[in-house]
Amino acid sequence: MLKFTFLGASGSLQELCSGNTSLLIRGERGCAAVDLSVNLPILTAAGIDTVILTHEHIDHIYALPSLLHQLWIGGRKEELTIHLPPGMEELTEGLIDLFGIRRKKGIFDIRLSGEPVFQAGTLRFTLFPTDHTGNSVGVVAEEGGDRLVYTSDTRPIKEIPAVMKGADILIHEASGVSTDEENLVKKGHSSGADAGAFAAGLGVRELYLCHLPAGEEARRAVLQEAGKYFSASRIPEILKEYHVPTGL
Asked: What is the C-alpha separation between 75 and 73, in angstroms, rounded?
């Protein structure tokens, strides 16, 4: 069964109730960290098989050196592959080198990969381009008949990519409401209305909103707007383990 946990669901501005958006995705065998910010002990305890970074913005990558350092202190020996969009290799290597991670005694092998399709245990991942930065990607995770889509940061998606079709779960950014659409799009983001409409068009079972604006009132407005288009819209509970629902 495909399971997922939100380590954080906030946008660029962290709050006490939620850090920056990042995920742990688990399968029957294998698990992956998707973007890196807060609650790293969850990842080290899970024994992650791979890391996926969706783009180069600080709120999605800043915890990479700390995660690698904690895995080393914890005695990890297995190679760790970090999957990246094309063009992120230099930045990622720079973060690793800044703290001398590769020079640690007994450090495990760290490999960077630009492969768009790969396995982690029983999980299959596919990276697809998004409209946020010049090289940003979203993630499709599959296991058996379960399929999850994480858009990461993106402007509104106009057409449904083939790789998303048949998804059960959509995790879509919602950085504000549609009254601020022009400003959101200018910055490479989507509204609650965009997320809800896309979930309805994709035909998923549940929509989880992430990259949320700061403040309870702002998050509530985003959820209300998404719910007008798609009733099964959710604000995720941080550190709760979710799974793809069974049955109709």
From this structure: 5
